[in-house]
Amino acid sequence: MFGLRKFNTPVLRPNAPFFVGGAIVFYLVAKAQSAMIDSEEYRNDPRNPALSSGKKQH
Fold first, then answer.
1. Which molecular-function annotations from GO does this UniProt entry contain (predicted)?
2. Within 13 Å, how many C-alpha atoms sit on residue 46's CB side?
């Protein structure tokens, strides 16, 4: 009688557009970041994280 009761409250369905939008923004930001790291302007910059980890040889 007392305590928490189970109600059918929709959580996932109303928030689905926000989850999808967040995933799309995350993907696009990651893609833009990798494009900026590989750009000609920052390719040989010592602050480039790809050069400091030794991943890419230019």
1. proton-transporting ATP synthase activity, rotational mechanism
2. 0
What pLDDT, in 10s, does the model give residues 34-51?
898 888 888 888 888 777
- pTM of model > 0.90: no
Q: Is 9 left (phi over 0), alpha (psi -120 to 50) or beta?
A: beta
Please check the confidence at residue 30 and state whether its pLDDT lies above 90.
Answer: yes
Upper half-sphere CA count for residue 48 (Cβ side, 13 Å):
20
Structure tokens at 1: 């009688």
Cβ neighbours around 43 below 10 Å, total: 13
Distances (CA, A) of 43 to 5, 48, 49: 59, 7, 10
